[in-house]
Amino acid sequence: MKKIQSLCNYCAIDCNLDFYVDEEKNRIVSVKPTPGYPVNDGFCCIKGISLDKQQTVVKKPHTPRVKMEDGSYQYPGWDYTFDLIAKKFREIQEKYGNEALAGISTGQLTMEEFAINGHILRDHLKTNVDGNTRLCMASAVVAHKQSYGFDAPGYTLKDLELSDTIILIGANPVVAHPIVWDRIKKNKNKKLIVIDPRRSETAKNADYHYPIKTKTDSTLFYGLANYFIEQDWIDHDFIEAHTNKFAEYKEFVKDFPLEKVSEVTNLSMEQLHELIDLIHNGERVSMWWTMGINQSHNAVRAAQSIINLQLLLGNYGKPGTGANSITGQCNAMGSRLFSNQASLYGHDFAAPAARAKVANIFKCDEEVLAKGPTKPYNAIIEGINNGTIKALWILCTNPRHSWTNNETFQQAMDKLEFYVVQDIYDDIESMGECDVFLPAVPGIKKEGTYINLERRLSRLVPVLKKDPDEKDDYEIMYGIAKALGLQDIIDNWKTQEDCFNLMRACSKGRPFDFTGVSYKGLEFSHGVQWPLPEGTKLEEDERRLYADGKFWTPDQKAIFQFEPVPENPMPQTEEFPFIFNTGRGTVGQWHTQSRTREVQFVEGVSSNHPYCFIHTSVAEKLGLQHEDWVTIYSCNGQNADFAIRVTDDVQPDEIWAPIHYQECNKLTPSVYDPYSKEPSYKSAVVRLEVKGAK
Ligand code: SF4
Questions:
Q1: Nearest ligand 1 atom, CA 590
Q2: Is residue 560 part of a domain?
Q3: Which of 87, 119, 467, 584 is the most buried (most CB within 10 A)?
Q4: Is 312 close to ligand 1, i.e. is its CB under 6 Å away?
Q5: Is the CB of 14 under 6 A from ligand 1?
Q6: Could you tell me the distance, in angstroms and rounded to a whole number, from the CA of residue 10 to the centre of ligand 1?
Q7: What domain range includes position 130?
Q8: At residue 608, does pLDDT exceed 90?
Q9: Residue 204 has pLDDT above 90, yes or no
Q10: What is d(CA 445, CA 475) in angstroms, rounded to the nearest whole number?
């Protein structure tokens, strides 16, 4: 039996796992969380421990399925299919323009796969590709860039154990990030505070829960900032040495007295003062947010209101502190740096020196490189629906289910002239009548690099061998690049290790410089958090940024970012009196469930139909009982049926539904943060009608 250490490619924690493999049969016999790995140290969740279920997922034949001209589906082989895709992409671009072709990828790919995909679509084909990371992390990314000058979350997971006051805002790690929860539990000397409209699983286990009204977070944090400034409970030395725009911020937050904050947030004055005292009396205060903040019409400013408060308090760079964004997918961080979507492989698209540097590394002409960020996800879907985009290539994502207001993706699929789906499954909701299905092997047969939520590079090592006719995502993209005749890729990007080395060279001199890390050296290691420039000795497994108070802006100071709180674009009305909030349902369910449906244990304990939670008082008024059915009508014009669960954990004017059922995002709106273009998944307004028992 051979032991192979690799990683779990579900969530952003990137747990390392030991796979015990019968090499003769090419079968995983068991999976155990890797002891001593600094992230998960011998612990993981049901999703990681069940990765062996993916060993039979790709059904035979392992070759592409192509819709032929007569409408029949055939399996003409990889080379034929690569040539067909190249021909169709070129034809559509020649007929309608470069941007008539688009791509949508995912935070599940390896760093190398993002990079080659971005180089093909953004650089060579001069068009747009965005990722489903837009749906979860874009707001945090923009907040970091504007406040710090670079997308550089500074924490290490150890900070959860070192903090004496942990504040979770719109985050439910008991369900969504079990390792974060494990690390919190290991900290015996902390006060745990949860700010969340819902009494989530985490809120139930916290010392303090503040059930804030949905989407009033920035008002709360502006008000707290004002109070701390008024009391002079702020870190003047840190503010003076390491921040800009304090005077303007001080003036701005004067408009947020606690009485007003109480009225807007539904938190009482007693609750606000209690929260203030907890923060003021804490010595190592850390604040952590995730989708409750990121998925909003005002997300970037809400995230920055948290950042601003920690800047005021000087809570940066010290153990157990920070304004810390918890990411969603396994390689969201890799996507942010190397997908070539929002930056030029971690550089400014417009910087002449950066363009010359990257072109030199890639051995291509500078003119090849993209000149600006991609069109965002929403613009791609809208482009298909308004007829300007004619061809789409989706990679390892399921937008028919996960896209906000997801009926708009069905409309888009129906309009495409050429549609390519690349996935490990041939039955996801987004398959539609795609022209080409490209079957990729699952992660247990792939190699590459991932970067987790605390900037840790880690190696995906192939656990099982591929069958001769199977291909991984990188090989598929490389095959398409070859068919397109993209010479620099053919010459310099042959393997994932080649690509890693190109990205490593791109990182030189940048905040994420990992020139001191080697592809082979990452294998069976503890992973390495960036930065690690060449020649630097790795002294510790857990490192944080900002100990020197230096940020990435031109004068190395962080910037207070703020603006008046915008009107909620979806206010409650008589017609739509409830707020429809969404989130992860159980630890075992992942996103659209295309992967976790394989795990029998999860299937056995999860609901097989959509459900939502409504408050006891509402159920009593409507005469509803557990598992009765309602129809929910959304302000987006759609409706869907849900079974109800009756609870006191949601507020009386709130309905909460898990995201794992396609009906959920049928109801979410086409509303986005203005800076990040991340959808506002958590605050559609709706009404419900009783259907009765089913
Ligand atoms: S899903 Fe996340 S927490 Fe669970 S095993 Fe995988 S990486 Fe770890």
A1: 1
A2: no
A3: 119
A4: no
A5: yes
A6: 6
A7: 65-136+330-529
A8: no
A9: yes
A10: 12
Domain presence at residue 129: yes
Give the whole-angstrom CA distance, residue 334 versus residue 336. Answer: 5
Task: Give me the helix-helix angle, 377-385 and 407-415, nearest 10°.
Answer: 50
- Distance CA(430)–CA(103), nearest Å, equals 14
Residues 74 and 32 in one domain: no
Q: Greater confidence, 333 or 204?
A: 204
Atom of ligand 1 nearest to the CA of 178: 3
Alpha carbon distance 513, 12 (integer Å): 20
Residue nearest to atom 2 of ligand 1 (CA): 11
Residue whose CA lies nearest to ligand 1 atom number 5: 48
Please give the distance of CA 687 from its chain centroid, rounded to a whole number.
Answer: 29
Tell me the best of 14, 43, 47 to mutate to test the pocket of ligand 1, counting ligand atoms within 8 Å of each CB and taking the most.
Answer: 47
Which residue has a Cα nearest atom 8 of ligand 1?
Answer: 15
Question: What confidence tens digit (pLDDT) does each residue in 500-552 have?
Answer: 999 999 999 999 999 999 999 999 999 999 999 999 999 999 999 999 999 99
Amino acid at 123: D
39 CB less than 6 Å from ligand 1?
no
Structure tokens at 7: 């990683």
11 CA distance to ligand 1 centroid (A)? 5
Residue 103 has pLDDT above 80, yes or no: yes
Token reading at 540: 């510790």
What DSSP letter does each residue of 226-241 carry, written as one string?
Answer: HHHHHTT-S-HHHHHH
345-390 confidence digits (pLDDT tens): 999 999 999 999 999 999 999 999 999 999 999 999 999 999 999 9
384 plus 303 within the same structural domain? no
**CATH code where residue 674 lies:** 2.40.40.20
Q: Distance (Å, rounded) from C-alpha 8 to C-alpha 178?
A: 13
**CATH code of the domain containing 471:** 3.40.50.740
- Total domains, the chain: 4
* Reported confidence tier of residue 448, pLDDT bands at 50, 70, 90: very high
* Residues constituting the chain: 694
Q: What is the pLDDT of residue 597?
A: 78
pLDDT at residue 602 above 90?
A: no
pLDDT at 643: 96
* C-alpha 516 – ligand 1 centre gap (Å): 27
Within 10 Å of residue 271's Cβ, how many Cβ atoms? 17
First to last CA, the chain: 50
Q: Is 173 in the pocket of ligand 1 (CB under 6 A)?
A: no
For 269-308, how does the pLDDT look when each residue is reduced to its tens digit (9 = 90+)? 999 999 999 999 999 999 999 999 999 999 999 999 999 9
What average pLDDT does the segment 34-42 reach? 96
Asked whether residue 539 is domain-assigned, the answer is no
Query: Residue 143 has which token pair?
Result: 């907040």
Q: Determine if ligand 1 sits within 6 Å of the CB of residue 443.
A: no
Mean pLDDT, residues 424-449 taken together: 94
